[in-house]
Amino acid sequence: MDMPWPTYALIALGVVALVIGGAAHAQTPPSAAEIAGYQGLHAAAARGDVVTIRQLTQSGGDVNARDGNGRTPLHVAAFLGHPAAARALLAGKADPSLLDDQRYDAVTIAAVRDDVEVVRTLLAFGASARLITSRYDGTALIAAAHLGHDGVVRALIATGAPLDHVNNLGWTALLEAIILGDGGPRHVETLRALVQAGADVNLADRSGATPLAHARQRGYAAMVEILRTAGAR
């Protein structure tokens, strides 16, 4: 569908506002009260207590048990940034593909936190960068690109994250790096990583606006140059 750019821009800004406005509620880390009430593997994961995790998994503890928000101990370890605990849980057969009640897996949780170490730990122990997550039917790569977490983006790309997955907003990781980015160094490096990996630089959004059009409209000169060099139209 063709429409004048000002009309399109107003619609796009409305969608952006919706996404950003809901971002604070998209993931739900365990609250202080929840952490205080945790027992067993959830409590050990929250503390980063590797010794207790190993003891409990070896004695038959449910490594995929859920708390009141659908979080497993592995989700908790990801939310609280405990790579050693995540490693111990995975060694104890934690399932990294499980989603919490907001439809996030441990990889996407760590990606949103900009926690490269936890992301790499999870991926090294068999977690997938290809899962469809969140209310937006996105991926960890899209979430990281949206936030300009360039180190996480490169780690996900290295393990086969789908470069051109389109979420239910009609956006790829590359589009989100532009549309929801600030044009600053980390979003520029995110875009560069995606382009170097072979992301489709001409895959337009639902209105037909290309990544190059979005970058030009926002005045993101460095992004425009990267895209033009890669053959964007």
Structure in words:
The protein has 14 helices and no strands. The chain has helices at 5-26, 32-37, 40-47, 50-58, 73-80, 83-91, 106-112, 116-124, 140-147, 150-158, 173-179, 185-197, 211-218, 221-229. It starts with a helix and ends with a helix.
Which H/E pattern describes the elements? HHHHHHHHHHHHHH
Radius of gyration: 19 Å
Could you name the ranges where pLDDT drops below 50 across 5 or more consecutive residues?
1-25
Question: What does the overall shape look like?
Answer: elongated
Main sheet attributes: strand count, strand direction, barrel closure: none
User: How would you classify the helix and strand content by structural class?
Assistant: mainly alpha
Features:
single chain; 14 helices; elongated; disordered N terminus
Topology:
Layout lengths: L4 H22 L5 H6 L2 H8 L2 H9 L14 H8 L2 H9 L14 H7 L3 H9 L15 H8 L2 H9 L14 H7 L5 H13 L13 H8 L2 H9 L4
Helix pairs in contact: 3-4, 3-5, 4-6, 5-6, 5-7, 6-8, 7-8, 7-9, 8-10, 9-10, 9-11, 10-12, 11-12, 11-13, 12-14, 13-14
